Amino acid sequence: MRNKYIGIDLTSAVAHMECGMVIALKRIISALPCKKNDINFILFCTEKNINMYDNLKNIKIEVLTTDIEYYHNNINFIDVLHSPFNKVDRKIDGALSLLTKYDLIPPRFINDFREDQIVNSIESCHEADYILTSTEFSKRDIHWQTDIDENKIEAVYLPVEKSILGVNKPNVDLSKPFLCYPAAGRAHKNHENLFKAFSKIKSDVNLVLTTGEKNVANNKFNYLEKLTAEYHLTGRVHVLGCLTEEELNYIYSHALALVYPSLSEGFGLPLVEAMTFYRPILCSYWSCMPEIVGDIGIYFNPKDPDCIARTIDDFLNSEYIVNVGSYDRQLEKFKKNKIGEEMIQFYSQLVYKSKILNLRKKRNNEIKGMLAIKHIMIEKELYSKELLSYTEEFVLLMDCSRLLGTNNVSGISKYIFKLFDVLSSKLGSRFIPFYDENARGLAKDLDIRTRFVLNNDKEYNLYHKGYAINLAKSISKNIVYFSPYHPLPKLRDKDFSYVITIFDIFHLTRLDIYPEQNKYFTNDIVKSILKNDEVVCISKHTATELIKYQGYKHHVSVSFLLSMNDMIEEKKYKKKNLPQILIPFQNDPRKNFRLMLESYYEYLKIGGVNSKLCIFGKTNLLSEDDKKLINEINKHVNVKLVLTPSDIDLAKLILDSSCFLYLSELEGFGLPPLEAMVGGCASIVLDNTALSEVYDGWPFKLSSNSSSIEVAANIKKLLHSDENYIVKEIEKVISKYTVENFLNSHLSAFYEAMRRKNGN
């Protein structure tokens, strides 16, 4: 997987101010661990504010200047773009957008905020793919006010540790004992109720407030000065301007306690800062305060000035002793290292989700091969929190009508038997095989609920289609209808996902080989595919040809086959004193039987007399010309004809053979050479159609226009090659075509069909 990149957008107006949100962001960035972290961070700044963030650089964090044009034209490597200040100002194609939203206070105080502020605070949440907030309370509140899925909202506390700087007394008379409340003069900070309470307390104690710069233009400062005069607290209430960190340290270290009457907070940073100085905390029991302060808080009703006053008086008149152990336990929640690890974990999840989403987009437009299938299965295992339960609960309806036909030894029937075995083992009762009495080539058998078919002495039970569908619906509402051979139904159930297998479409594309009347073999199957169906093709060649023939993109998964003959045991290639050449006969012009026969005849001329030939298949259909050439060959070597061998007989033939000739010119996959290799018999194939990809890298693959003389030379080359060399080359080929890959490629096709059906 390529490098992981998180971009942090620091180009907004807020990013140019030394405010609380910027301080919080810097703390988070500083907490990110450099070691054991495979994520790279890029802070996108402007020329005006780059100096504010330049000191955050390290081996994992880069600070760059950028502009809007650069965003759109050059940034294509970012997995997640983080907008840390309440609004998504930029987006990057292909990157997830993350918004930090500390709170949704404006909608809760509609009389104190402008209408546009209230609307924007909610709408901004919907602009992002994911939201980061600082408390579980805020997470629930954002979900409740916006109806955004809670799985899209993550709560991570801010990192807070005691300042390492010293103290510096502000330029104000603080000789009397005082309580402190560092908060801007916004309405939800509830200063007025605090002033009312303070006017009622009997103890001789002062109150220190911090807010913005002390100047006429600062309405918040003026508001607090006005309240001071209104409640006759001049001399007892000190309204300070913006303090340095050292001055704020002095306030915390000398205050009797922090008093915090806020009505709503996203986090409440002063609460934890006071905690680091082991100050008593008198605070509101509303909003996130109980979550942040825990059992060390002294709580009051912030709406009741009398309650606030009583709480302050009770505290001042008591001999309150700070429980240091309780404070330390609470502070553990906000440790820098802990928060840094949590942020890396969260960022990593987002990077993974970003890559998954991009892969999904590609999967919707590209043929899905082994790598895509691997990603789908990883996604299913690791991304389960966001996946719907259908991946675990779905029921598979599989059309097995082909098994009740007349040709159970064909490759397609064996494919269905193999699917039956692996899917029933994996899915258990969620696998429901059925037969359709109206399927082509199937005798009408009404009112038979269950039928069975035998294969290699194993019984396979099939349900009647109507009964199977009702059974599936009684088990789950997530149902995949899978046809591994027959057309998909014209009448569709709107709640089903549909999947079909296509082996090849040569009957449609190669009319030079197959006459027009043979089109029906494939045409009705291809025509049954709708645009949202998932199509399983047994090679990329078939997938490409299907898309080209249909003229539009299908949703295609490639599921390579594996040996379908269970009688073939995996054996290593061994040289034989009298090697047997094995040639399959099929009465199909594309299989090139004549070329294989002529190639062996040529091999006899270059030393092949110390070998023997075996021809198997429907040998009763051999042409007269072929019989003549076989008789000629039989004058020099022993020729054995085997009529339609059983699986176990074919396995014995492969075990006794050294070379399997397979010179087909058109293949949707080309399984026989693979099965021969599994049994320890090396194959010779042509480099064409699907054979090119299935046997990629196999050294005994010839160009598609090879002559019989060239094939004969290759037979000789194979039989004279080093035994260990051939063993290793065979292993390279067959290792790709495993039961696990076969199963997973089909499961991933089912997951993809359900994903689209469920709108993911």
From TrEMBL:
Gene3D superfamilies the record matches: Glycogen Phosphorylase B (3.40.50.2000)
Pfam family, one: Glycos_transf_1
Database matches in SUPFAM superfamilies: UDP-Glycosyltransferase/glycogen phosphorylase (SSF53756)
Stored InterPro entries: Glyco_trans_1
Gene Ontology MF terms: glycosyltransferase activity
Domain Glycosyl transferase family: 169-326, 570-723
Keywords: Transferase
Full protein name: Glycosyltransferase
